Amino acid sequence: MKRRSAVNRILLALAGIVLLGTGLMILAGGFDLYRRWSLPPPDGWPLTTPRDVLLADVDRTRWADEGWWWPAVIAVLAVVTLLAVWWLLAQLRRTHPGALSVGGAHAVDGVELREGALGDALAADARHLSGVHQARARMDGSSRHPEAHLAITLTPDAEPGPVLQALRDGPLERARRSMDRPLPARAHLRLTPHKPHRAE
């Protein structure tokens, strides 16, 4: 899992838990469930009966006449809005290279290779290597700095070292030559599940 994806999921999960818990507590007060089911409301929670309000008149107007109050409220709301917009733009920013020009610095106009096609070609090429049972590949990064991520499933009798060497000298080298640019790569290796052999 990529770091940004993990951070997004954690933030969304925390926000969802807080909003869900707050909503359930508000509904419990609105439907008078604390009294009906003899449930003790949380300490300091203001909404315990249908007639309760979140902020009393005194609380809502306590600082309204202070000169710093409205600038502070506006500043806090502006910061929250800017953070929300920044987060939204970060999600929309492209994390995949998209179309890659073939030939690098000497690319021919109009000749491009889609990231999915390159990933499929890498995976298909890797499947032909000795000791490889299955292979999948995807492209990350930008169009100027693409990165290859490969998931390789080895046969039960394969050795990781020779497979990685063949992967580097074969499919990855051919992909680098076709694009005429560096192509950093990460490979995740795992063995094909198989029954244990009994030694005699």
UniProtKB/TrEMBL annotation:
Keywords: Membrane, Transmembrane, Transmembrane helix. Residues 175-200 are annotated as: Disordered. The chain crosses the membrane at residues 12-31, 68-89. Residues 187-200 have a biased composition (Basic residues). This is Alkaline shock response membrane anchor protein AmaP.
